[in-house]
Structure formats: structure tokens, C-alpha cells
Design goal:
- By secondary structure, this protein is α/β, with parallel strands linked by helices.
- The chain has two domains: about 270 residues, 3-Layer(aba) Sandwich (Rossmann fold), CATH 3.40.50; about 80 residues, Alpha-Beta Plaits (2-Layer Sandwich), CATH 3.30.70.
- Helices cover about 30% and strands about 20% of the residues.
- The protein is built from 14 helices and 17 strands.
- The strands form four sheets. Strands 1, 2, 3, 6, 9, 10, 11, 12, 13, 14 and 15 form an eleven-stranded mixed beta sheet that branches. A two-stranded antiparallel ribbon has the order 4-5.
- Helix 1 packs across helix 2 and helix 2 packs parallel to helix 4.
- The relative contact order is 0.15.
- Bound molecules: iron/sulfur cluster (SF4) (2 copies).
Amino acid sequence: MNMKNSKVAIMECPNYDIENMMGKINAGIDLIGGWGQWIKAGMNVLLKVNLIGPLTPDSAAVTHCEFVRAITRILKHLGCNVWIGDSAGGAIGGKAQTAKSLTISGLEKIAQEEGAIIKNFDREGVVEIKNSSGKIMHLAKPMFDADFVINLPKMKTHLAGIYTGAVKNLFGCVPGQKKAEYHKASPTTSAFGEIICDINIALNVGLNIMDGIMAMDKMGPISGGKYSAQKIVMSTDALALDTIAAKMMGLQIQDLPIFQASIHREIGEWRIEKIEICGDYDVPPRLINFKLPRMISREGKGSGILAKLIDIMKTRPRIDLKICKKCNLCVDSCPVQIIDRQTKKIDYEKCIECMCCHELCIYKAVKLVNVNRVIRFLSRLKRQ
Ligand code: SF4
Ligand code: SF4
């Protein structure tokens, strides 16, 4: 008999209509266990959103504030106190972007309107944990103070990791500039995956509900395209949820270096045959014409022709001064501090190719250019 270990509910949801979302979320939750299994009146429930930067709800880069409103309302009906929290990526002049991001994303407003409490992870204190290599890490205190945590990732591509979802979303529990420090300490995607895995093990997240209504394809997680996926994906198992969401994009999770540690250390289920799919689908629906990032960075895989192809297609960041607004977010957030403040030139000898500069520039001024001159020349010709 094929025993299924983890359940993932996939619900079809065409837009951010509040009543529709609440109905779909409640129906999906019923299928994977029911609210009553985890939630009791009077609990403090933390919604860990994806607040990558100061971006509007319709950017497809942040968890949509109406999606957060729907879950807040459900929890309020159940008698809970709702907290909404995250720490945004990057800093300008040493100043973190979280407060600004909470306003621009619309989350502050919906918290006021729905009677929820905002938890800016940069200001709420930290809890010290030891990671798998015995090093001390600091994680946002509300993640430990809450009675129950619900992770609300956004369905997106990621040019360094290819896909980003529930497991990676917990990196936002690292407050402020500490994120850059941890990035610096893990210069490959799989080393970074170890840190993500450590964070997932340290935090007790009870449930994951992914906003895949307006997803992001192409060069995510900020500068990608909007893709109307019209899905809400739910599971108590973050890795199983990511396995299914990645499959919907045409990816096998075991091929993605950022998930290697999480698979190896068994933080959840990644074998499709062990995952029970329920809701509006019984197999992961393929997202038609969903475009994956044109990403080939520091950690290719395979050998022979594939390795050569990866080498040829390798890209690196370059700042387009015609678009750059000189806000210095990339300069201050670069983990190895190698972007010149005046000229915006990057010291490629020292670049660890984390792509944080590309990820954080909301003006899309950080372009990814091919390292290979022939490919660069051909792409220029194609554009003309
Ligand atoms: S590239 Fe983007 S993030 Fe960097 S200084 Fe220019 S506008 Fe700011
Ligand atoms: S220049 Fe960009 S890609 Fe290179 S290390 Fe700095 S932030 Fe990362």
C-alpha cells in the first residue's frame, strides 16, 4: 500500500475577492485537518508574510494585503489575536526597509482596519539559536512568542534559486542587515540552502498558505512578470507544498540546489508519490506558459554539455546608470560591499553572485548580463 504522509490542498481562486478567498481557504483547510485542529479562541496567531521590499500589493512580489485580510478575518472569527510580521530585504544607509514596506504593501492599513497587530521583525527583539554548524543565529522573537505561526509565502521564481516559496520565505525571520551577513557566510546556493534549512528546523511553523493568485514568473523575486496562476496552495508541510508548487512550474524540487539540505535533513516530504493532493485538483496542475528565470549563476549542476552550456549562459549583475535612482539600496545591502557608491561599478573579482542587488532594486536598474561576450553580442543583435 502506498502510504501518503503529507497533504497539500490546491484551490482554484480567480482573484482577490475577499469572500471568495475566505471560502476557498476554509474549504482547503477543512481538507487538510480543519482549523479546530490547531486554533483555539484567545490564541496569538502570527501571519509571516513575504515582504521582500517596499512594493505595492499588485507587484506580485509581496503577499497580497487582501489575501492577508482574508486570513486575518477568518482567524478573528475564530476568536484569535492576529499578528502580521516580517523583515524586508536590504537597507538604505543602514536603515532597514521594513517599516516603509509595511506601509507600501498595504499591510499596515489592513491591520488597522481588521484589528490586527503589526510586528516589524527588525524592532521586536531576537532569539538566539545554534545552527547545524554550531554557529549562533538570530531570529525574530515574535516567531517564538506566538501561539501558532502561519507562513504566507508568495508563489514566485527566483533568479538564484529558480523557485521561492514556503521554505525560503522563513529567511525573512532574520532581522534587518543580519540577512546580508548570513548570505555572505554562504556563498553558494546549496550552502545558503543549509541556512534556510536551519531556520525551518528552529521555527515551529504550524501551517503554510501560499498566495498563488497573482504569481511571479521570469526574473523573480522582484523584477519578474505577473502571472495569473489563480491558485491557493496549503499544507502543514512547507517542503511538500514547495514540491507541488515547483511541479506546477515544471520543476523537480530535488534538482534545485537550495532545497538539497531540506531534502537531505528531511524537514518534510519531497517525494511526489508520498504527497496526497486534495482540493480542486488531484494532481499538480501545470501552469501553462509560465516562464522560468533565465538564471544561470554560480552553482550549475551536471557536467559535460550541460556544464558547458551553463558556463556559456552565465550572467552577472550590472547597474544601468540611465535607470539607477542612486538610492544606494544595492550598495548598502551588498553582503560583501563591492558596489562603488559613486560609480555603481561592481568588483566582479569579489562578487559572490548572490544577486541580492538585482533582487532588491525596485527600479529594475540592476540588469543581468551574459558573462560570455559572444552571447552578449548576439543578445544585443536580437534586441535591435
Ligand atoms: S541600482 Fe537600484 S538599488 Fe542600486 S542605487 Fe540604483 S536604483 Fe538604487
Ligand atoms: S554585487 Fe550584487 S551579486 Fe555581487 S555580491 Fe554584491 S549584491 Fe551579490
